[in-house]
Write a structure and sequence with these properties.
The complex is a heterodimer of chains A (341) and B (508). By secondary structure, chain A is an all-alpha fold. Helix content of chain A is 74%, strand content 2%. Chain A has one domain: ABC transporter involved in vitamin B12 uptake, BtuC, CATH 1.10.3470. Chain A has a two-stranded antiparallel sheet. The radius of gyration of chain A is 22 Å and the shape is globular. Chain A starts with 15 loop residues before the first helix and ends with a helix. In chain B, α4 crosses α5. The two termini of chain B are 16 Å apart. The chains are: A mainly alpha (341), B alpha/beta (508). The complex binds adenosine-5'-triphosphate and magnesium ion. Magnesium ion binds next to α1 of chain B.
């Protein structure tokens, strides 16, 4: 990129370090990888128990529901929309799934119902935002409260236990393919699909266009509403899959699943991953990397035996630092490109 | 116009010496020299991407030069940001509007410098002064209107008002008239003369040569970021200016060939919508229909209604035998219509996207097999248009945000040409485009007409309408008031038919 087409006599000599800096500043994934390496390096140094391979397999395993939800949210946010209802979706899906399994004595029907909740709520969100033209932030916030309330009312705040004790169902979480846990595989498949869709397809290009300038997209004949609608469905369905996985963990539909700001964690990760809050910029791989970074920090602290309350504090501070780093990086990217690097 | 400053020994207000500025892959300014004297209007001209806006952004402190020296009143300065430039009483009207849409006109005019009384904003003075400024520009808009509700041209005038509101010594205007009507231009020029009398130096960027002859004292031509010539305007002919700008002799500006009029392609009957009533339009294959009107006549609304981008409340539109659904750009496109919108920032460009992706945005289907994009094909098509329209960009992957204004416009032009439509509606397609590229765009239009396309061409510039349209409709207050054939249309007739009230309108 540093090649200049014309000879340029009055130009100061290019400093080497600036070239590297420009390279890193421009590559979202690289800078995130760097952060991940720093975080991992820190824990390797500070905490001996983190020096086992298993820790990292477990990390992937633990963050897989977040990763999956992040896929949906990232796609939605690329189109400049939000979905805050995904945390409540986890509980809603879990409770609906286990209840259906108990009522029908069929695991498959239960799973089907769980996925259907994603479809249903996604359609509802999508309909309200794109056809009734309600604002997505407020609409999904309302949905977040409504769903949680619904779950509380229905369960009376008691976990719904799988009466049939389907071991098949728990395999959803505990199963393995080779050395890799099923949810991890699922997460990576979804990320791969999202990457493909976003970078290689017309649909993906349209998502970026809508996020970048919705009016322009509309005037270019892109079916904006239909695409936005579908994105809400995708986001909800991803959350429903996460909800299923979480329910499979304990073989229970838990009313408080995701209540500790799951949606905000996902959004934070996606934004850390460089997806612009105003849409149109970012990519799925960086978003996934950011999820891993946040997951690693949490996991490392647990290994070090840091108390949960303090963990919150550290995560908060780290997040602020990361956002700051991000700003600085962006500024450098612009500054260096203006300087011609 | 007014007496050019004869005393060239006076200290220049602004002097640039060997200023260079490079962007990745682009040398925007290459050892540029420039001198602005007190009380002169100095025009700066050059092709799209020649580096004019970059130079202005250096003056305004938005960019820092890589090398070279800048002097204000003989003192070397180095601006770290716009605040430094403002402190030296430099006011800039940027090419791309930068107003806050949610704030009122008055608030925008005084943004960052609200008049205060006892620590509180003095709204009375603010709106009173704004009112006066607007009156000076002949604008009857209420200073309390949110800027977002104004038309592009009005926004541009507000921007100018803002530059005039403070007591500047150097006023820089980057294509300020690109969206203005002739009358508004006249008023602007009167204001510029007033500034000039006060000894203010005005740097004026434009692509309209006639304007230069009306107000400029001197002119500087840039090409490829280099200073080509600075001369007194009275000593040059337009032809020389063009040659300096383009670096070669330019042949016919309006390459108009006679095309056999084909069957009716587009038939709009009794169309109505916001501010538009009983609008009828027939476009034949191979025909270029010009639509002319002053600001507020509704020509741009008509464009949007035809395409479905603004609401159509009545009437029918038939394209090549099939009826077009109202309010659905997708349907209009499906049936073969394309629209180049008036305001490229609002509903044209997707700024964070690349040049290529912006070009192919409306024709992705063409490059997709089962939605899977063939990006090689896409790039090839885009390269073709970059060459055909001579778009200046370091690569197809460049974000369109970083292109010069005129080149952005060409990217949008390419977006629609790529679709190969049957009917193309072009709203101000040459706004902000340099002479050479204008000729190229007219040539493209002519070529498209020869291939049987029907073109609706909307413009507020009479010469180009006269030069390229086969038939001209004149609009006034949302209605068509006159129709002329190419052979009978003249500047006077168009102006007369477009004037709001022929009886009382002041003949300027
Ligand atoms: N921020 C930027 N990053 C990269 N390239 C840039 C940037 N700003 C300008 N350029 C490039 O520098 C060159 C000069 O641009 P500039 O905007 O100064 O042209 P201009 O003379 O104002 O053209 P126009 O008549 O189209 O407005 C162009 O090739 C443009 O693409
Ligand atoms: Mg410019």
């Amino acid at each position: 990129m540093a090649s200049v087409q014309y000879a340029h006599p009055a130009k100061a000599p290019r400093q080497g370090w600036k070239r590297y800096a420009a390279f890193w500043a421009r590559n979202e994934e690289l800078s995130l990888l760097l952060i991940l390496a720093i975080v991992v390096g820190f824990f390797l140094y500070a905490e001996p128990s983190s020096r086992q391979r298993k820790v990292y397999w477990d990390l992937l395993w633990e963050v897989s529901p977040t990763l999956i939800a992040a896929v949906g949210i990232a796609m939605l946010m690329l189109a400049a929309q939000f979905d805050l209802s995904i945390g409540s979706m986890l509980a809603f899906t879990g409770v609906a799934t286990v209840t259906a399994m108990n009522k029908t004595d069929s695991m498959w029907l239960g799973i089907l119902v769980g996925l259907a909740t994603g479809l249903l709520i996604g359609c509802l969100n999508g309909f309200l935002v794109t056809y009734v033209r309600m604002q997505s932030l407020m609409t999904t916030l309302g949905m977040m409260f409504a769903l949680r309330g619904l779950v509380y009312t229905y369960t009376n705040k008691t976990p719904v236990i799988d009466e049939n004790q389907f071991t098949q169902f728990t395999r959803l979480w505990f199963g393995k393919v080779g050395p890799v846990r099923t949810p991890v595989i699922l997460a990576f498949i979804l990320i791969a699909i999202a990457w493909f869709v976003l970078t290689q397809t017309e649909y993906g290009r349209n998502i970026y266009a809508i996020g970048g300038n919705e009016q322009a997209a509309r005037v270019s004949g892109i079916p904006v509403r239909r695409i936005l609608f579908s994105l809400f469905v995708i986001s909800s369905c991803c959350a429903a899959i996460s909800g299923l996985l979480i329910a499979a963990q304990t073989d229970t539909g838990y009313f408080d699943a995701g209540v500790q700001g799951f949606e905000l964690t996902v959004i934070a990760a996606v934004v850390l991953g460089g997806v612009s809050m105003s849409g149109g910029q970012g990519n799925i791989l960086s978003a996934a990397l950011a999820v891993l970074i946040l997951g690693m920090i949490g996991k490392g602290m647990r290994l070090m035996g840091i108390h949960t309350t303090q963990q919150l504090l550290v995560i908060g501070v780290v997040m602020l630092a990361a956002v700051y780093f991000h700003r600085v990086r962006r500024r450098w990217a612009v500054r260096l490109r203006n300087e011609g690097y | 116009m007014s007496a050019p400053p004869t005393d060239t020994n006076q200290t220049p207000l602004l002097e640039m010496r060997a200023i260079s500025k490079t962007f990745p892959g682009v040398v925007a300014l290459d050892s540029m020299d420039f001198v602005l004297l007190p009380g002169e209007v100095h025009a700066l001209i050059g092709e799209n991407g020649a580096g004019k806006s970059t130079m202005i952004k250096i003056i305004s402190g938005l960019y820092q030069p890589d090398s070279g020296e800048m002097l204000i009143d003989g003192d070397p300065v180095s601006f770290r940001g716009p605040a430094d430039s403002i402190a030296r009483r430099i006011k800039v009207v940027y090419q791309e509007l930068d107003l806050v849409p949610g704030l009122s006109v008055g608030e925008n005019v005084y943004l960052g410098a609200y008049p205060k009384k006892g620590g509180r904003v003095d709204w009375e003075t603010l709106y009173g002064n704004t009112r006066e400024l607007l009156d000076g520009l002949g604008l009857s808009i209420d200073p309390r209107t949110p800027v977002g509700e104004l038309r592009v041209a009005e926004q541009q005038l507000v921007e100018i008002a803002r530059a005039l509101s403070q007591d500047a010594r150097i006023v820089v205007m980057d294509e300020p008239t690109s969206a203005l009507s002739t009358e508004e231009v006249d008023r602007l020029f009167r204001l510029i003369e007033r500034l000039q009398e006060r000894g203010v130096g005005v740097l004026y960027v434009t692509h309209k040569l006639d304007e230069i002859y009306r107000i400029a004292d001197r002119v500087t031509v840039v090409r490829d970021g280099k200073h080509v010539v600075t001369t007194e305007i009275s000593k040059t002919r337009p032809h020389d200016l063009v040659t300096w700008m383009v670096g070669r002799e330019l042949t016919a500006l309006f390459p108009k060939s006679t095309v056999e009029r084909g069957p009716v392609l587009l038939q709009a009957t009794d169309v109505s919508g916001e501010g538009i009533e009983h609008f009828d339009l027939t476009v034949h294959s191979g025909e270029i229909v010009g639509l002319f009107g002053l600001l507020g006549a509704g020509i741009n609304t008509v464009a949007r209604i035809l395409f479905g981008a603004s609401e159509r409340t009545g009437g029918a539109i038939v394209l090549d035998g099939s009826t077009i659904k109202p309010n659905s750009p997708a349907d209009a496109m499906e049936k073969g219509m394309g629209l180049l919108t008036e305001n490229r920032k609002d509903d044209g460009l997707v700024l964070p996207m690349s040049v290529r992706d912006n070009m192919t945005l409306a024709s992705l289907r063409q490059f997709a097999r089962l939605s899977w994009l063939d990006s090689r094909n896409e790039s090839e098509a885009a390269t073709g248009f970059v060459e055909r329209l001579s778009i200046r960009t370091p690569s197809l992957r460049q974000r369109v945000q970083f292109l010069s204004g005129g080149n952005q416009q060409k990217v949008l032009m390419a977006r629609w040409l790529m679709r190969d439509p049957k009917i193309l509606i072009l709203a101000e397609p040459t706004r902000g485009i340099d002479v050479g590229s204008k000729a190229e765009i007219y040539r493209l239009m002519d070529e498209m007409a020869q291939r049987g396309l029907g073109i609706v061409f909307m413009s507020t510039e009479i010469p180009e309408i006269l030069g390229i349209a086969d038939r001209i409709l004149v609009m006034r207050e949302g209605r068509v008031t006159a129709e002329f054939d190419r052979s009978e249309a003249t500047q006077e007739k168009l102006v007369q038919a477009a004037a709001v009230d022929p009886e009382t309108s002041e003949a300027a």
